[in-house]
Design a protein that fits this description.
The chain has helices at 33-41, 53-58, 79-94, 98-116, 118-128, 146-157, 162-175, 177-190, 197-204, 208-222, 225-232, 237-247; strands spanning 12-13, 22-25, 46-49, 70-73, 136-139. With 249 residues, the chain is of the alpha/beta class. The chain has one domain (12-242): Protein-Tyrosine Phosphatase, Chain A (Alpha-Beta Complex). Strands 1-2-5-3-4 form a five-stranded mixed sheet, covered by helices on one side. The two termini are 16 Å apart.
Length: 249
């Protein structure tokens, strides 16, 4: 069973894969000393940090020097791309575009990750495909979008049913309900009450349509998720076979 953490609310096992092998999380800058012990208790060997260089420097993981856990940075978006997306999303909140434009920007964010940063996704899968790197944690800032995409790809590669993949993706909304409510309360005031609290929570949340559109686009272009991982991410067939074998229950 995954332990409860003092500083994390969105740390959990990736659903549907072999237990105790792969975990997903929000950023690890809030770890307490006891949380570090909890990570070590899970046997974590590697942490794949999907954030940009600036994000990592601003909020580094709070791991002791003697943790024995190796951090592997693989930025799915560089600093400039992250800044553009962030400014566009804030523009929707402060401007007149509203929620519909917000959704379009998130769809574009997912598309960029998958179709323009495939080699970086491939780099993450190569790390996870090495037995000596497991158990591992993948994380970004909230553990929602970048982490959600990588986790879903690993699950689909392992043959996890799409319903389970979606449930796991949307579980972030349950884990982050308090954080999203706090975000909505602050942003409602800062944006002059342009949006309701409920609208802001929806904007902050994982939405099924984001993953549906992304996965549908990958299958349409590459024929299958395996085809995408081979052709779009450049991951060798033997690496995918090894990763699949390590993730299957």
């Amino acid at each position: 069973m995954t332990p409860a953490f003092d500083g994390l609310c969105n740390f959990r096992e990736v659903g549907g894969v072999r237990p105790g092998v792969l975990y997903r999380s929000e950023e690890l800058s809030r770890l307490s000393a006891a949380d570090g012990e909890r990570l070590r208790g899970l046997g974590i060997r590697v942490i794949c940090d999907l954030r940009s260089d600036r994000e990592r420097a601003k909020r580094p993981a709070r791991l002791g020097a003697d943790s024995g856990i190796r951090i592997v940075p693989v930025a799915l978006q560089d600093d400039a791309a992250q800044r553009v997306i962030r400014n566009q999303l804030l523009g929707c909140l402060y401007g007149r575009a509203g929620g519909e434009r917000y959704r379009g920007i998130v769809h574009e964010y997912y598309r960029q990750m998958a179709f323009e940063r495939g080699e970086r996704i491939g780099a993450v899968l190569r790390v996870l495909g090495r037995e000596e790197n497991l158990p591992a944690v993948i994380h970004c800032t909230a553990g929602k979008d970048r982490t959600g995409v990588v986790a879903a790809l690993v699950q689909l590669l392992a043959g996890v049913g799409y319903g389970t993949v979606m449930d796991d993706y949307l579980r972030t909304n349950e884990c982050m309900v308090g954080r999203f409510a706090k975000f909505a309360g602050v942003m409602r005031v800062m944006t002059g009450f342009r949006f309701s609290r409920a609208q802001l929570v929806v904007m902050a949340s994982a939405q099924a349509e984001y993953l549906d559109v992304l996965c549908g686009g990958l299958v349409e272009r590459y024929g299958s998720i395996d085809g995408y991982l081979r052709e779009g991410c450049g991951v060798e067939a033997e690496v995918l076979a090894g990763l699949r074998g390590r993730m299957v229950e």
